[in-house]
C-alpha cells in the first residue's frame, strides 16, 4: 500500500508541476491544433493530394500521436530538472525502491500525455472542418483511440525514461529524442499514407512503432474500411508488446541522481 | 614518515562520549556500525577498510577534507551505493528500504523542488514516508513554526532565502520523526546567523533522541557542536573521540605568525626547533603548534624578529590535531586557517 501511496504522491506532484507551467500546458495543445489548421488546410487546398479526399481529417490522428510524442519528451526531460534540483536524491532516499520512484515519474508522463492527446482529440472532433468517419461506431472508435493513446504514451514515456536515465545531459537527451523520434513521426503514416510509398519507405514504416498507433487511430477515426492498413489485431499486438516491454524496461533501469 | 604520522591516535575511544542524548526506546546501542568497509570509484579508493561506530543519541561528526570519504560513507548509509567489502548496519540492522523510513537526510547540495510551496514540500515527504495525514499536518505545523517558516508555508521554494531553504530541508528531514539524521555539510554557504539557527534546531532534534551524523570539513562546527568526531583521510579513520580527547595529545599552543614577505625559509627552519609540532604555511602566514609558546616566541624574535609583522597565540583546534596526524590541513583557505565566526 505504501508503494501505491508513493507512486500516487509522485504522480500528483508531477501533475501539479505541469499545471503550474502554463506555457507548457497551452503550447502542448495549441501547437498540434495550429499545425492542423495551417498544414492541414495548406496541403488540402494548396497541394490537393490525389489519394486523400480530406487531408485535415487524415492529419488529425498524426497530430494526436505528435502530441503524445512531445508530451512524453517534455515529461521525461523533467527527470533532468529533478536531478539538477537535487529532489531526485530525496526521492531515492525515501523508503521506496528506484523502481517505485521511476514508476511514479513515468506514470505522470503517461497521464499528462494521455490527457493532452485526448484534449486535442476532443477539440478536433468539435471542429466543423474535421469529419471523423467513426467506422466502428462513435463509442467503440473513441475507445479504440483512447486505447491507442494510452499504449503509445506508455511506450513513449518508457522510452523517454529509459533514455533520460542513460543520457547525462538534457541537451543530449533532446538531441537523441529528436534524432530518433522525428523520423519515426515522419514515417509513421501521420503526414502521408504508407501504402503509396516506395518499398524501402514502406519497410521503414513497418518497423516504426508509431505507425501502429497512427494506423489504429486512422482506422478508428478516418478510414471507412481497412484496405491498405495494418489492421487492428496487428496494431493491438505490436503496441501492447512495445508499451508493456518498453515501459517495464524504462522503469527498471538504475538511475544516477548525481549531476 | 607520513605513514607513521597517520597511525591512529592512541585514544581511549571506549570512554563514553560526554552526555549523549538518550536514544529512543527500542533503538540499538549503535546508530551506525561500519565494519571494514571499502568502496572504490574505479581505481580510486574512497573508503579504505573503514570501521566506525556511531552511538545512538550522539551528535557525531565526520571531519576531513574534500575527498576524504565523508559523503561516500553517507551515500552508503542511505543505500545509494554498495560497499565493495565490509558490512554496514544502520540502527542495528542491515540497510533496507524499510529501514530508510527511520532516516532523515540533509544533502550537501540544495534539494528542493522549485515548483512546490513550503507546505507541499513537507506534505510530499510525509506521503513518501507513509505518515498519516493528520500526523503529517500536525508535525508540519509544529516544525515550520520551530524553524521559523510558519508564515512562509504557502510560499514557493525559490522565493526563500538560502538560510530558509536549508531550514526547510531540515524540517523536511524531521517531519517523519527519524531516529537518525545524516547531514552532509548542512551549513555550507550559510551566514553565521542562519548557521547558528540551524544548529539550534538540530540540537533540539538530538535532545528528542534523534542521532545526528554530520559530514563536514568545518573544524569549528565539529568542535563546537559534535560530541564525538571521527577524523578521516583518504577513506581511512585517522582518529575518533571527543574533541577534548582528540586534542589531549596535541602540542598545547598554536601560534599564528604574519610575515613581511615569503615565510618559507623560516618555516623550514622552525620544523627542526625543539617543541615544534606542525608548521603550516598559507600565503604570508605561518601556523605553528608548539609545546609551549613562550620559549618558541623568544627564539622566533631572536632569529627572525625583523621579518615578523604580527603574532597571535590561539587555542589549538581539531585542524591542528588533523595536521599533526595526517600532515596536511582539512580546509584549504586563502588566509591560512581562519575560523568561521559564530553568529551573534
SSE layout:
The complex is a heterodimer of chains A (259) and B (344).
Chain A: H1 2-20, H2 22-47, H3 55-85, H4 87-92, H5 98-126, H6 138-164, H7 170-186, H8 199-206, H9 209-222, H10 232-250
Helix pairs in contact in A: 1-5, 2-3, 2-5, 3-5, 3-6, 3-7, 3-9, 5-6, 6-9, 6-10, 9-10
Chain B: H1 2-5, E1 30-41, E2 44-55, E3 59-63, H2 70-77, E4 85-90, E5 93-94, H3 97-100, E6 103-106, H4 118-128, H5 133-146, H6 162-174, E7 180-184, H7 192-207, E8 211-216, H8 219-225, E9 228-233, E10 236-241, H9 243-248, E11 253-259, H10 264-270, E12 276-282, E13 285-290, H11 293-304, E14 308-315, H12 318-326
Parallel strand pairs in B: 3-8, 3-9, 6-7, 7-8
Antiparallel strand pairs in B: 1-2, 1-4, 4-5, 9-10, 11-13, 11-14, 12-13
Helix pairs in contact in B: 4-5, 4-6, 6-7
What does this entry look like structurally?
- The complex is a heterodimer of chains A (259) and B (344).
- Chain A is an all-alpha fold and 259 residues long.
- Helices cover 76% and strands 0% of the residues of chain A.
- Chain A has 10 helices and no strands.
- In chain A, helix 1 packs across helix 5, helix 2 crosses helix 5 (98-126) and helix 6 (138-164) runs antiparallel to helix 9 (209-222).
- Helices cover 32% and strands 27% of the residues of chain B.
- In chain B, strand 4 and strand 5 (93-94) form a beta hairpin.
- Mean pLDDT of chain B is 84; it is low at 1-19 and 333-344.
- Chain A binds chain B through residues 1-2, 5-6, 8-10, 13, 16-17, 20-21, 82, 85-87, 89-97, 257, and chain B through 78, 80, 97-101, 103, 105, 107, 109-116, 120, 124-125, 127-130, 172.
Portion in strands of chain A: under 5%
Terminal Cα span of chain B: 43 Å
Instruction: Summarize model confidence as the mean pLDDT of chain A.
Output: 88
Q: Low-confidence segments of chain A, ≥5 residues, pLDDT <50?
A: none
The separation of the N and C termini of chain A measures: 32 Å
Approximate strand percentage of chain B: 25-35%
- For the secondary structure, the number of strands of chain A is 0
Main beta sheet of chain A: strand number and arrangement?
none
Shape of chain B: globular
Rounded radius of gyration of chain B (Å): 22 Å
Given the structure, what is the number of helices of chain B?
12
Q: How many strands, which pairing sense, and closed or not: the largest β-sheet of chain B?
A: 6 strands, mixed
